[in-house]
Specification:
Elements: H1 2-10, H2 15-35, H3 40-44, H4 48-57, H5 80-84, H6 88-110, H7 121-129, H8 132-153, H9 156-163, H10 171-203, H11 220-225, H12 239-256, H13 278-301, H14 303-312, H15 321-331, H16 334-341
Helix pairs in contact: 2-8, 4-6, 4-9, 6-9, 6-10, 9-12, 10-12, 12-13, 13-14, 14-16
C-alpha cells in the first residue's frame, strides 16, 4: 500500500509501532465483540505505552529483519546513528515508564481488573444511557481506535529523544527523572489509600498490612459516606488522575526541554507548534472528560455528600482546595460542608444530610 511505502521512506522508525497499533486495535475490538466486554483496552493499557517506549529506546537491539510477524525490527533505512548507539535520555525515559507500568499493573491486578470477566463499571452505565447501536459505534471509534491511538502517542516522546544527539544526561534530565519517580510514588500512595478505603468499606475491618501512607484509621462514618475523603483525597478529588497526567507531562517534556532540543515556539504561534505536546494534551483531555463522566456517576449515587465534596475539594490541583475552603468560609457554609465531607454529617445510607 502507498501508506506503508511512504511510512517506510519518510519515517521508518514508526513502521513497526504503527503495525503493532493497528494489530492491537483490531484485536481488542474483535475481543470486545466476542466477549461482550469492552474493557479489553483497559487490560492492556498498563503494557502498551511501555512496549512502544521500549521499542524506541532499544532500537539498536532489534534485528533489521523480523524473524516472525509483529516481532520488533529496526529497518536499515533508519539513520545509522540511531541504529548503532543507545540514547541515554531514551533509556532514562524507558526506565521511568517501566516503573510506571509495575505500579499500574500491581494496582490493576489486586483490583481483579485483569480478569477477562471484569468490565469497567462506567461502560455499563453508558450502555444504559444510549442505544445498543450507538454504544457499538462508540466502542469501535473511541474505546478501540481512539484509545489505542492515545497509547501509541505516549511512546512518541521517547522517539523524539532517540532522534536527538545521543549525548550524556543533562541537568534537566536528572531533575525530570527525579520528579517522575516522586510522581509515581505519590500515585502509588493515592492508589493504596483508595484500595485501603474500599477494603474497609466492604469488610468493615482495618487491615494490619497496609502500605506506608495508607495506614489510615477509617471509621464507620467514612464507610457510610461511601467515598474516600481522607489522606491525599482530602486535597484532590482525584490525586491518582493528577499524578497520571503529571507523569506523562514529565515524559513529554524530557526531550523537549533538553539541551539537544530545537527551540520551541512559546507561546505557541500555530497548531503545528503544539504538536510536540500532543501526547500529554490528548491524554489530559481524555482524563478531564472521563473524570466528568465518573463524577456524574458518583454524584448520582451520593447526591448531597458528593456535591459537598465537589464544593470543598478541587478536582485535580490541591492548591485550589484551600481557595474553595476560603470561599465557603466567606459564604458562611464551610462548617456544614466540612461536616459532610470530613465529619459525620451522613445518614446510614451514605447519602448525606441536607444542612
Amino acid at each position: 500500500m502507498d501508506f506503508w511505502r511512504v511510512l517506510m521512506h519518510e519515517a521508518p522508525m514508526f513502521v513497526w509501532p504503527v503495525k503493532f497499533c493497528v494489530a492491537m486495535t483490531a484485536t481488542t475490538y474483535v475481543l470486545s465483540i466476542l466477549t461482550n466486554n469492552v474493557s479489553q483496552v483497559d487490560r492492556v493499557w498498563t503494557f502498551l505505552p511501555t512496549i512502544y517506549t521500549i521499542y524506541y529506546a532499544l532500537l539498536p537491539f532489534w534485528p533489521s529483519i523480523p524473524p516472525t510477524y509483529l516481532f520488533p525490527s529496526t529497518p536499515d533505512t533508519i539513520p545509522a546513528s540511531l541504529r548503532e548507539t543507545f540514547s541515554p535520555r531514551a533509556l532514562l525515559m524507558a526506565s521511568l515508564v517501566v516503573t510506571w507500568m509495575f505500579r499500574l499493573s500491581y494496582n490493576t491486578w489486586r483490583r481483579g481488573l485483569f480478569s477477562l470477566k471484569d468490565e469497567d463499571y462506567r461502560w455499563e452505565v453508558l450502555r444504559q444511557k444510549i442505544s445498543p447501536f450507538l454504544f457499538q459505534v462508540f466502542n469501535l471509534l473511541f474505546i478501540a481506535i481512539a484509545q489505542n491511538i492515545i497509547l501509541f502517542l505516549l511512546g512518541l516522546p521517547t522517539a523524539r529523544a532517540v532522534a536527538q544527539p545521543h549525548t550524556p544526561l543533562s541537568t534537566s534530565d536528572y531533575i525530570f527523572g527525579t520528579l517522575g519517580l516522586l510522581i509515581i510514588l505519590t500515585e502509588f500512595i493515592s492508589d493504596n489509600q483508595q484500595y485501603s478505603f474500599q477494603t474497609f468499606k466492604h469488610s468493615g475491618k482495618l487491615s494490619p498490612n497496609e502500605w506506608p501512607g495508607a495506614r489510615i484509621q477509617w471509621t464507620k462514618h467514612d464507610a457510610e459516606r461511601g467515598f474516600v475523603t481522607r489522606g491525599l483525597w482530602a486535597w484532590s478529588r482525584h490525586p491518582n488522575f493528577l499524578c497520571e497526567q503529571s507523569f506523562w507531562i514529565i515524559i513529554t517534556l524530557i526531550p523537549l526541554l533538553s539541551p539537544d532540543s530545537p527551540k520551541l515556539d512559546f507561546p505557541p504561534t500555530s497548531f503545528a507548534s503544539l504538536t510536540p505536546f500532543l501526547p500529554c494534551l490528548v491524554l489530559c483531555s481524555l482524563f478531564f472528560s472521563s473524570t466528568i463522566f465518573t463524577e456524574s456517576i458518583s454524584k448520582a449515587k451520593y447526591p448531597v455528600a458528593y456535591s459537598a465534596y465537589q464544593e470543598r475539594v478541587a478536582m485535580f490541583l490541591p492548591l485550589l482546595t484551600p481557595v474553595w475552603g476560603a470561599l465557603l468560609e466567606i459564604q458562611g457554609r464551610k462548617g456544614s460542608v466540612d461536616s459532610l465531607v470530613y465529619g459525620t454529617g451522613l445518614n446510614s445510607k451514605g447519602k448525606g444530610k441536607a444542612e
